[in-house]
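Take one protein record:
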Amino acid sequence: MKPSSSLASYCFVSCLGLFCFAATQCLYADAPLVGTKPAQWRVTWRSDPATSATVSWSTAEQGTQHRVRYRIKGSDRDEGVVAAKSGRFTGGHAELYYHHAELTGLKPATRYEVQMMSDDESSPVFYFLTAPDTDRPFSLLNGGDSRSDQQERRKVNQMIAKMVGQSFANDDPADDILALVHGGDYIVSGPNVAQWSEWLSDHELTVTDDNRLLPVIPARGNHDSGKPFNEVFGFPEDDRNYYAINLTPAVRLITLNTETSTAGSQAKWLRRELASSRPAHRWVVAQYHRPAFPAVKTPSSALQSWVPLFEAYDVDLVCEADGHNIKRTVPIRNGKHDDTGIVYIGEGGLGVGQRTPKTERWFLQSPGMADQGSHVFVLTFSEDAIFGKCVLLGGDIRDTFERPVRGR
């Protein structure tokens, strides 16, 4: 699962208490999995990100005691120590253990320092930012498909770390990047723990130079079958992986699961969710994996199950993945271009070989677009509009768009 530390490619340099690669051609993990030394650190948002977060890490050995110490950044007093729920990852021959500490009762819009502790070993001190409980502008990152090109994945992760670090250097709160909305297909084979371990180690590269952890809001992709997905992100064992959270009082994010029935109970849940969230929020955004309006493949069952609900309740933006390309559709309603309709963006470039989009499809015609290239979307939510931009690996802006608030 890991190369020996004696290999030339295993090249570490010290970086603010973290381990980081000195060169982009080094392809393996940044923090070695040794004994009960915490590694593969991550934060997940699944419920109320203003007051809670799941802090997770991995160890090579089972250990006996796993905890997180946390406090407000800059404070000289710990808020507490939380015991983690632990277990061995399921699948394959790789031995790897997960640990999830649920932090609750946090203060909104607050930087919390965290340190993972397993037996007598400790991680570096990191921090993350809780979501605000006030109606203010902010930004998200969105993308999917990081499964098959590790070198590209690592480069995109390094770009994400740089973007997040720069976002807090600006005075404008709209530049604050709060989380990564990941549309699924993290690895090639969902039951393969060794592949998950590699992905988790590469995810460490999203940590900023000042040790900030960027929370992930995960969706399940078609390559993410099996138990490890829930074990990686701290979901309950039999969780169905569709849920909704407030990012501020004005912004509701709905995560759906295309890897189970899109009709039945999930569609009924979505109808109830939209009926309650649409009147209460300025912005309602959905994310899931397999696209309803694909740039390469055939439409998923989301076209029949969810699109009529999106249109009935005027969802503002939908984020899709799976196609391995870049796309932004025209506004769509009733199967045609309609300026009152819904824009669908995607389709995945966080570390995967890119496919050629079928640009002749009507919903990709101007003012829509389609292209290919490793990328991440930046979505900025203001009082009047959602501003989007597609950032290519290297920093070039491939596309920009604006979705004005409805009814104005």
About this structure: Residues 1-30 form one domain.
